[in-house]
Design goal:
The protein is an alpha+beta fold. It has 9 helices and 5 strands; from the N terminus they run βββαββαααααααα. It has 3 domains: 4-63, Nucleic acid-binding proteins (OB fold (Dihydrolipoamide Acetyltransferase, E2P), Beta Barrel), CATH 2.40.50.140; 66-143, Orthogonal Bundle (DNA polymerase, domain 1); 147-193, Helicase, Ruva Protein, domain 3 (Orthogonal Bundle), CATH 1.10.8. Helices cover 48% and strands 20% of the residues. The termini are far apart.
C-alpha cells in the first residue's frame, strides 16, 4: 500500500495533483481543502495517501493531515458512501466541522452538503457518532465544537457560494461579533458576506 508520498508538485488542480517522486509522477485525488494547502508546482510536499484498487482502476487519494485521512477511511466504511462522495464531503466542509455536526447529530447542516441525501446523513450519524469524539481528538476539531447550528449553516452557505473554508469561518466569526451570539442564519449570511 502507498501510505505517504514526498516529492515535488508537478501538476496542481483544485482536486487533483501529480506528485513527482524519484522520477515517477503519482496522480493523487485530493479534497478542495487539501488542494488549497498544496503549494504551487515545483515545490516539495508530503501527503498522506490511501490507495483504492478496483477492477478497472487504481485510485490514490491524498490528505494534508492525519485527521482528514482517518475521517475519509471511516466515511468509506459507511454504507452508501464511496471514496468520491467522501472526497466531495471533505471538499465542502473541514474535518473538524464535519465531526462537530456528526457529534451534535446536526442532520439539517449535514444535508446541506452537496451530494449528501437524507439517507446518507442518517447513515453517517448512525455509523460515526461514537467515533466522532475520538477522531476529533486527532485534530483541531475542539475549536469547532462551539459553533452553533446557525453558524455551521452560514459557513456551508458561503461554501456553496464558492468561499473557501477558512475565509468563510472568519467571515461568520466577524458577523457573530457584530450581531451577537444566537443570531439566526438568515441574518448571519448577509452580514458575513460583508467580510469576504
Amino acid at each position: 500500500m502507498i501510505e505517504l508520498l514526498h516529492g515535488k508538485v508537478a501538476i496542481k488542480h483544485p482536486t487533483f495533483v501529480v506528485i513527482e517522486c524519484a522520477g515517477v509522477g503519482y496522480g493523487v485525488q485530493v479534497s478542495a481543502r487539501t488542494g488549497e494547502l498544496i503549494p504551487e508546482a515545483g515545490n516539495e510536499i508530503t501527503l498522506l495517501t490511501h490507495l483504492i484498487v478496483r477492477e478497472d482502476a487504481m485510485l490514490l487519494f491524498g490528505f494534508i493531515d492525519e485527521q482528514e485521512k482517518e475521517l475519509f477511511l471511516k466515511m468509506i466504511e459507511v454504507n452508501g458512501v464511496g471514496p468520491k462522495l467522501a472526497q466531495r464531503i471533505l471538499s465542502s466542509v473541514s474535518p473538524g466541522d464535519l465531526l462537530s455536526m456528526i457529534a451534535r447529530e446536526d442532520k439539517a447542516s449535514l444535508s446541506k452538503i452537496k451530494g449528501v441525501g437524507k439517507k446518507t446523513v442518517e447513515q453517517l450519524v448512525l455509523s460515526l457518532k461514537d467515533k466522532a469524539a475520538a477522531l476529533a481528538a486527532t485534530g483541531d476539531a475542539a475549536e469547532t465544537i462551539v459553533l452553533s447550528s446557525a453558524e455551521q449553516e452560514a459557513i456551508l452557505a458561503l461554501h456553496t457560494l464558492g468561499v473557501k473554508d477558512q475565509p468563510a469561518k472568519d467571515a461568520v466569526k466577524k458577523a457573530v461579533e457584530v450581531l451577537g451570539a444566537g443570531t439566526d442564519v438568515a441574518r448571519l449570511i448577509p452580514e458575513a458576506l460583508k467580510y469576504i
